[in-house]
Amino acid sequence: MDTEEYNPDESHLRRKRRQDLQEMLTEVGLSAEYWLPKLQEHLGVTCAQALQYLKEKDLQRLKSQAQHPWEKEALEKLFEVSQANSAPELQDSSVDTIKKRQTAGEALQDLRGSQSDGKHRQEEALCGKETIVRQVMEVPEENLTLLEKPLSKVTETKQKQLSLTDQTLSHRKNLSDRDLIKQASGGLALQGIYKTSQQRDLIQRRDKLLRVPKELSIFGPEQGTRMESKEFTSSHAESIFTQTIEKLGFSITSSVKGGGWGIRLEAGMDERNYAESKDTHQSHSESSYFCLSKFNYIPLATCHFSIDQIQLSKAALEDLKIIDELLGEITNPDRVPLLRHRTERFFQRFGSHANQGPVHLGGIYCWKAIAEGFKSKQLAGVKQQASEALDIYIRGSYSGFGVKIGASMNMSDSHSKTTSQNTNTENLQTKVELSVAQTGGPPEAEGPDQWKAGLVASNQTWSVIDRGLQLVPIWDIILSNHRSDFKDPLQVANCLKDNYTALTGLSAQILEGEELLSAGKEVRLFLQDVKSWEVTDPEEQLQKLIHFMQTVSQKTESYDIWINTCLTDWDLQNFLVNTVNFCKELSIYKTHFIKSQLRSLLEPHVYKVKNFPHAQSIMKWMKESESEDKQIRITQFSELIENIEEIKNAYMEVSFRNDSPKAVEEAQRKATYELTTALSSFLNYLQETEQQDTRLLLLSFAAGSGYQVANEIFQRLLGHDELNFLLDEMQVAEKNYQELNNISKQRAQAFLVLTSLSATVGARANSAEEKTRRMALIRQCMGETLSMEVQHVLTKHGSHHDWETLEKDLRLILDGTFPLNDVMLSVLTILQENSEMHNKLYFLQWLSLFCENLATGHLEKLRENQRYLWSKVQVEKQKTQKSNSLTRWQSQIEAISTEINDCTLGIEQLLREVCQIYEALEESSSTRDSLFLCLPQIAADLMISGVPIELMDGDASYVPLKWVAAVFDKISEKLGDKQLFVLSVLGLQSSGKSTLLNALFGLQFTVSAGRCTRGAYMQLLKVEETFTKEFGFDFVLVVDTEGLRAPELSNKSQNRDNELATFVTGLGHLTLINIFGENPSEMQDILQIVVQAFLRMKQVKISPSCLFVHQNVGEVTAKDQNMEGRRKLEQRLDEMTALAAEQEECLHVTRFTDVIEFDVNTHVFYFAHLWDGNPPMAPPNPRYSHNVQELKSRILLTDRQESRRSVMKISDVKFRVQDLWKALVSENFIFSFKNTQEVMAMSKLETMYNQWSWKLRSHILDLQNQLNNQIQNGKFLKLTIDMLENPVNKTYETIKEEFEKYFQEDPESEILIQWKANFGNRLATLKDGLVTETRRKASELISLKKSHEVLDSQKKHYENELLEKSQKLALSVKGKDLSDENLLQKFNQLWRKWVYEVSLAAPPVIEPNIEVDSDSILWDYFNKERRSLSEKLTRNIEKFQINYDEHIKMRKNKFYITKSLETRHKESISKTTNNIFSRFGEIIKNIWIQQRDYDQNDFHEILRIIEKEVKSVSPEEDYTFTANYSVDLAVCLFKRASKSFKEIHEAFKRANDPVNYLESKKDDFFMSFKISCQGATSIKSFADFLWLKLIPAISASIGGKMVLKIAADMRATCPEFSGNRANLEKHILSFLAEEEKFDNYWEYIHNPESFFKSYIRNCIRRYCSENEGDKVKASMKMSLDDIKNAIRNAIYESTTVTPDKSSTASRWLDLFCDQLGKNMIFPRRDLTAIEHQEINDTEFLKEAMSAALDPAMKKVEEDSSGKPIEDMICEIEKILTGHLCGCWKQCPMCKAICTNTISTHDGDHSVPFHRPKAVNGWSWEKTNNFAIDCCSTSVASDNVMVLGDGRRIPFKNYRQAGGDYVTWSITPDLSTQPYWKWFVCHFRSKLEEKYQKIFANKGTIPHAWFKITKQDVLNDLKM
To answer: Of 85, 427, 1036, 1425, which has the fewest CB atoms closer than 10 Å, so is most exposed?
Structure first.
């Protein structure tokens, strides 16, 4: 037969092997243009045939050149395809093989004939014949020998090889599929695998686990042939690798090594660990090992075991039935260990998992080169040379001329030609052992070609060469296919699963057998149906596939069946390929929906499928890409002014000419719109040219007119006032600014900032909140350009600006110099320039007389007029009938008194002005001129010279601290920091205080009848040097004060008198308390307030002393009754001090002397009358002078005693004044009362008032919410009296009745009566204010509601205008495309006009000042705690930390010893605090839910919660909360609430204000405008808009779906949550025992509900974080897929139903929303903006929607993945807690938790087992010995319990204890759980430490308890 006849077959084979490389690249989606050069450059590949010889390392080199991640996957696919393309040559039938052998025989005969003719191999004809032989025998071209051999030798060798091959083929027969699986590799495919983390368990051989499936099919290979190389540096590593291949397969080595089964194999290529472990100190001189192996992997067939086909072997079933029997032996005590032993034995024998495949059959041919005995440093050279030797060996084995198997080669002899090229390589004498090994194939074969021929010829030679990665656990096989073989299959499965986890430490779960079996059957039936599918309607058919995929995945809660069964099905793959081919013929825009469907089916599942050859081409196809308005331009300020003037004139003309309000309002709208346009143009220009100062000026005036900088629109329509303001005031300001800028940049900027802060229309000043916004604008515009001085002013006040001071500082910079009038300038000049002190004193004396003479005449006339009116009043009062003139005359007298006071001018007023000038200059940031510096020096000089200087401003009751400090500093500079003794005097008006001081020290304080001294004055007296050492001080500072209880100041005298008395008493070392007469009652009231103030001012460390001086007491009285008077005085002082101490909770203070140093025997003086007779003619009384001398002696004695203790220096006095005054200011509350009794009465009254006011506020707040709901629902649009006033008045009258009753019946009613009218007015004012505020808010809401209705009615008009505008625009651009920027610019011109159309002409809504409200309410509520409140408000407290020293006060026991704070107290305190925070959170949450506005009453409700929780503490508790606790907590919560309330208010405005409402729709209208403008492409924009709305809705739905999925999965898979709460508690107790952490036990015992929730949250976190959150990702993936498929289905159904010629999108949207409504919240009403759009091509709409589906879902997935898991944990915890909730009441004795599953169950609480009472800290009476018996034991005994109040109750009658004892059923029972006995033993020392008690005597722990082990209690819990 002629050879030519076989050329077509040969040519076909050649073409098949050498198919075009470019086509292969294109087929997998790679760019041929890019990759062809890369293949040639890096690998030398130029044809497709060469690809089959690529190695793994070659693939990695290619991957490094990839430009995109997907290209790496495509390269892998190319690699697989190229290897698979070589498979057909191995799959030929024996007949084909024999025919090829005949061809080779004929070619060989020709070679013999040529040999006889003397021809050579090199001749072309002979080369062709030899090639035929080589190709038939499949010898790779690169493996031909390089050695020259004679033609005869070649012929002989080839003939021998061909004969052996024929012999092999003739003796082999093929096995059936079932027999093949039984015999291949000894039935390896049927053997089980023990999947553990130990390598040895994986590679150990097991007994057959499975039977051969009845229906078994073996298919062609799913993998291609390939060559792999492996290197080993230890014989152990090589051995492990070989065993792994034999047991698990070839590919498993790399997969498992990388963690393919969640474990890692350490044996593999280049393994060094074993060798290194032998000796880590091996030297370089010792021998080493190297092995290079090359494997030819040849797969010939593939087999899959589906889950429903898997059947266990008979032997395996018998072993499992033994376990089944053992499980039924419940009474067997050894049952648990026996089960563990049997299951472990089963796993060791049969394995734990079956391999589902794919099982790959074929053979592996391996060549090895092994070198030993070389030095470690020679390893690199050995590797290279061994590789070369092995290559030669492989080529020789193919040619037949190679070395024999098992031969060895000397490395120095094997180099051949390579040796000469490697001159630097050391000549090695190491021998390389060369050998071959084979898996499968005929064992008698010689060489790889014969072996391969035998392998292909007969499946009897096949081995299992790979087993895949899909493992199925034994328990799933039982539940799927062997339920009938067991009594309780689920119990067997659970036993195996649990013991597997215990033995291996690997997690496992059970897939319910019914679900798995059902899913398997459904899959088989469905795939059977798919076989008959032809591509007719791909969308509908793919939709069926998606629905089926969802059904199966939801049933099995995973995609495993879809991936491993469906996507591997050839018929389904074929249908998908045909679908793609079908779609390729369609227009590209018609396939977006289909591509979206395919993505849902394939991504990412297809990447896990290994036998889907055309997947890459499908994925590649899926990824294929699918008239002008006039512009206003203003560049000059003057142009803007001209525009505003024109706008104003046009508006004024309409307003003057028209009476119609509608026409005027329309003119307002036009003016506002035009001015906005002009202003925006100029502002843009200023921004471009960086003229930020002018821009700030414009924005400030615009903001003052209602301009919103952020939105660039005016909030309300502009009227006459606003236009005038902008036109006139802005021009003036701009002019002034430019003038100042030419003079001084600093002054100009001060003017700019000041103007920006204050600019506003009308007289109303800007609020603090508005100024804060302006300040932000200033910083935004000016930034770093502000001068240093202005910057300093803006920053020195911090973030919370004192706006008044800040503006004053700015004015100082603006004015340049401080303005002094002529009088003060002259006075200061004289005092400064005269250096001689006597001249200054003379000048002051002259000035005093001058001022007195200046006013004398006028004052005399005023006094004469006053006397005249007074006489008329006296006469009128005598009359029976009073005339109407009486009141008028009395008012005139008051006015004259005020004028007389104002006309009084003296040195005091002038020096006070000096003080005020200094303080004003000190506030300025930079003014430090000579005037500023000289003022304190002037005052210091005068004071040193003996001139009295004002310490406290008597008119303002104010101490100028900075001035006083500066004066004392100057005195100190001049005199040195000398020692001072401070003496002060205190007394009622006209009691002779100043006279006494003048007599004592020769001073000249002003004296006369009436109120002379105002405030407090200080005078410095120098001590003679001879007495300085004796007294211990250098100067005496005498402080004189104004008279107390002055009748002319009766309205405000009490408060200022108490404040003044406290100040001077605290300041002085010694205070003279001057009393006129014997009765000290008025002074005692004042002193009581002084004492109470000192008790409150704890931070000021003072210890004053006092002397009492009774003046004007007769000689006899003073002598005879002074002892009794002293006794009564001391008694009264002590009584009032004790009362004040009780009020202030200062328990250590019981007497007056505990606060103020006082000796009743030596510190009380009685003075005679000053005058001996009636003045003015009476002489002085000599006895008075004698009394003064006695007093002076006592004062000096006190001075000497004080000097030994704490005489102050001048600097100390300065600081004492500062500290004392600051403390007084913060304690202002206390000074408004007459005495402590009044303070206590007021405290009770304030408490009652808070209750009354809250009742009123709460009622009105509820009423307001009802009104808001009715208004929002459109029930009424007008407010009537019946709706508001009548209900409020009814509640108010009820409160008034309670009010009257309280004032009548309270024991302190006589004191309270003075405040009745005030509090009654407060209640009435509160009621009126609340009603007014509620009416205002309701009216606002009604107005807003009406505006919304107007807006809704205008929407159609706006839409028509949009359409008209878009049509004009389309005509003007003549088909040109407009960018979104251009479109937005056009749209904004319309938008501004619309905004002003819905803007109200009414004034803007009053903005609440929430921070002011917060502070005001706190100040009002904590009036008594002003000092601490003031300090805390200055700090930013948003975190509350309990300070037990400040917040808690412990009660005293019956022995009056303060109880100690224990752990249980702290826990109770923490619980109260947590309750408050929880209820606070509910308040905020409820306001958000109600969608209402902020209300002041919300702050009051927070206070109410704090008050209620604090008062809820049981009176039997050992502690109480202090006022500081409430203050700190309220400040913290108010800070948090203020932030929330601001957000709430802004949200309310956004939702209800018409302009804000319209702004929220801006994007919708712009999109509608864009759609109209885009004409034919509007559908794309329509889809974009729809997706804009869909994405937030999807994101919102995902969270809810994931929460439910995770909660359901946890209930199904987590044992803790699979039962009731009792089951959960068992797991918690096990967890606590395993962890052995006492703190956790403590929390569980004392706060079980909190601990349960915390435990559940931790379980959720653990569940969600397992395997790097795989479960959460899976839940998210399934949730996303569900919604994605729901949307796709909605798109499909809506398009299918809606007719293609539908005029608008309305019908399509209706259907779309209806379809989605089942899966997510997506209201139809949100789409009204686009429902009018014409949609004439619904098919294209479907495509546009589908094209955006995947990107949108990807964004949702990214957003959802980025959210912290903590956001979901709370919701999951609520679901699980709700499922496991029950009663949380604890036994009052042992803290055991009631086991009732209903939280509010009927009947008693109970538990089956109680705990030892020691767990709750119980002890035996009068000992610290724990009580270790259980409650159930105690109630069976005769013991008694001793309660906290001392009552003794027998345990048998425990219910008599009351409280919680009554509700518990504790039955006598001697049985107990071992758990708590073990707990007591294990944590004995911890319990003793916590409770401060011991286990001794009666509390000794029984010895038997110590024998209980942890394992015992864990086993007990499992029963």
So the answer is: 427
